[in-house]
């Protein structure tokens, strides 16, 4: 007899989780950042990461650091967006 393996998927951060864990994580990000304070934090993070412009004099290490920050901001934003879409799908199923 074949034993069933738990279903897993590769999440937005390239880590393997169960679909339930992934959904829960998305909802936690949505709950955290979908408040007035959370939105203010996101706006501040956007300014210092996505909207930051590096000039020609920037070093390789500084640019790598900035790109890492941008990656994290993008991951946060994608999790929030997934949480929103999960909520929309759940609402439509009701």
Gist?
Helices cover 66% and strands 4% of the residues. It is mainly α and 94 residues long.
How would you explain this protein's 3D organization?
The longest helix has 34 residues, at 60-93. 66% of the residues lie in helices and 4% in strands. A two-stranded antiparallel sheet has the order 1-2. The protein has helices at 19-33, 36-48, 60-93; strands at 9-10, 16-17. It has 94 residues and is mostly helical. The mean pLDDT is 91.
Evaluate the radius of gyration. Answer: 17 Å
How confident is the prediction overall: mean pLDDT?
Answer: 91
Percent of sequence in beta strands: under 5%
**Biggest sheet: strand arrangement:** 1-2
Q: How many helix segments?
A: 3
Q: Segments where pLDDT lies below 50 for 5+ residues?
A: none
Kindly, what is the distance between the CA atoms of the first and last residues, rounded to a whole number of angstroms?
Answer: 38 Å
List keywords for this structure.
mainly alpha; two-stranded antiparallel sheet; flat; 94 residues
Write the layout of secondary structure elements.
Elements (H helix, E strand, L loop, with lengths): L8 E2 L5 E2 L1 H15 L2 H13 L11 H34 L1
Antiparallel strand pairs: 1-2
């Amino acid at each position: 007899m074949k034993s069933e393996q738990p279903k897993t998927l590769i999440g937005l951060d390239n880590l393997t989780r169960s679909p339930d864990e992934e959904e829960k994580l998305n909802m936690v990000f949505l709950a955290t950042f979908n408040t007035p304070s959370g939105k203010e934090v996101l706006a501040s993070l956007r300014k210092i990461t996505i909207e930051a412009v590096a000039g020609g004099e920037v070093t390789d290490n500084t640019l790598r650091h900035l790109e890492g920050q941008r990656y994290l901001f993008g991951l946060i934003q994608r999790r929030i967006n997934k949480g929103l879409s999960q909520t929309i799908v759940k609402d439509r199923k009701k």
